[in-house]
Amino acid sequence: MAFRQLVSRLAHGRFRHRKLSGILAKDGGYAAIGLQNPRDRRKIASLLRAAFCFGAALVAVSGKRYKVQRTDTASAHVHLPLLEVATLQQAIPYDCVPVAIERRADAIALPTYVHPLNAFYVFGPEDGDLGKAVTSWCRDVVYIPTAHSLNLAAAVNIVLYDRAAKRLASASPAPTNPLPAGP
């Protein structure tokens, strides 16, 4: 079996977060995370927790190796596939749209971004950027509008929350206001 087929099966398979899969993935979509040369292994553990909490299908890391850290309090590494790869492009599931998360002038602002059904979000190191070598194979480049760069785990949390919030909003009927009208 080819590596990309294996990754695609992991992303579609039994490893998805059971509780969220019924809510967020009724249409079969999923999110996967790619980390390009992360600077600090301790932050990967916090990021894994975010990926696990939001029902991501897998996390792929290129560069430094990940080791289980005390900051992974949810033991996400047990419930979520973590792939160590030479290049993130190898880890993109077959039917997935690569999306670079990068502070760039020509990027799409996250609040206006329409997430693909199957997305592979690629995050760079906190002390650098993804560079053309990575963004060239990403269909979309998205930025989180902030005054300064965020740490890696915070950026992953924000992107996955934005995806979940938009999917839930589009799947649910308009909320009703349970409060009585004012005077």
Task: Tell me what you see in this structure.
- There is one protein chain.
- Residues 1-7 and 12-25 have low confidence and may be disordered.
- This protein has 6 helices and 7 strands.
- It is α/β, with parallel strands linked by helices.
- A 7-stranded parallel beta sheet has the order 3-2-1-6-4-7-5, sandwiched between helices.
Chain-wise SSE layout:
Blueprint: H1 3-12, H2 18-24, E1 30-36, H3 41-53, E2 58-62, H4 76-79, E3 82-85, E4 97-101, E5 108-109, E6 118-123, H5 132-135, E7 140-143, H6 152-171
Parallel strand pairs: 1-2, 1-6, 2-3, 4-6, 4-7, 5-7
Helix pairs in contact: 3-6
List keywords for this structure.
disordered N terminus
- How many beta-strand segments? 7
Beta-strand share of residues = 15-25%
Instruction: Tell me the overall shape.
Output: globular
Q: Output the strand order for the largest sheet.
A: 3-2-1-6-4-7-5
Order of helices and strands: HHEHEHEEEEHEH
* Structural Rg: 17 Å
Q: Count the helices. How many?
A: 6
Mean pLDDT: 78
